[in-house]
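Me: I keep going back and forth on a fold encoding question. No explanation is needed for now; the record alone will do.

Assistant:
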Amino acid sequence: MTTLQLKLCLLRLVKRHFKSYDVRWANVKYVKPSPPCIFLKLGSVSMSTHAVTKVIDGAEVKSYASTAMLEINLYSPGMPEQTEGGAVQYQNTAVDELTGFCISLDYPSTEALLFDWGVQMLLENRVLDVTAILDGIEPEYRAMAELRIDFTQTVTDPYAQEEQATDDIDATGWFEDVEITDESEDYQWQAP
């Protein structure tokens, strides 16, 4: 799995749980949508120093045990409640919703999906309530959690096919014959 594949899997997993939420990556420029929405941020990836090397279908594949932190920021509209006077007020549900997601990581169906992907997720600390008052009037219900992601990063030699293609070139690196087809300032050459 590459880091890009990991990001796609994580996005799919979060969208699977929060079906009605707008789920996006935080390090992309766009206008922030209104709640309910979730922003994901994948931190730096650390890899093991030594890889496990295997030959698969004639290509050398290296596997590195890797770890990254996933930050999840959930913005909730809250749950509407009607007061005795008939006014509507909103109850903060952000922490409860994000805690529900973290608990769902232990469900058998989620564990099976993560196992198929070769990914392990663990809540690093706790779900934090980071609610803020905007413009001194309206609360922004928000919760944040950091999850530790363990996965195996696999890489193949990107130059392996390139080396096969250059085997036809002379050992000095020079072409044996070059034909000039145009005498203008911009020299065009073609290999015979």
Notes: Residues 42 and 70 are 5 Å apart (CA to CA).
